[in-house]
Amino acid sequence: MKHYTGVWMDHRKAIIVRLETGEPQIVTVTSDAHRPSKSSGGHHQKAPNAHQDVVAEDHRQHRYLQEMNTFYEKIFQHLLTADEMLLLGPGQSKKKFNHFVEQRHPGTLRLKAMHATGLMEPAEVMDYVCRVFKYHVH
Hints:
Number of domains: 1
CATH architecture: 2-Layer Sandwich
Largest sheet: 5 strands, mixed
CATH topology: Nucleotidyltransferase, domain 5
CATH superfamily: eRF1 domain 2
Order of helices and strands: EEEHEHEH
Strand content: 15-25%
Strand order of the largest sheet: 3-2-1-4-5
Distance between the termini: 14 Å
CATH class: Alpha Beta
Helix content: 25-40%
Shape: elongated
């Protein structure tokens, strides 16, 4: 039997539904990443310490990207047995995750589809994934 996996994600958490044998398995992975706030710029740039503001902002952005990569890697580890994968969620997180997989782990996952959805609860994600893969819960 093929193994199918669906992932609903945003930048804070991922709900992973694995369809293997028997009942679907649901796992939630959370992110420790905190999106950096943008500085107001403008008048700060004329200040004597303007360079420090830019460096601090670059550091926050770099740390955020590292934290997101750690989050993506945690998700990826749950997908290793998947023959096909479905990505769901609002915004750009699913596209960024797919790009991460293509860059860091090329050729390891087969993406069936990527669907934009709103906020979903685990049971909703499970139902959606089961419908897409035509999987019937025993």
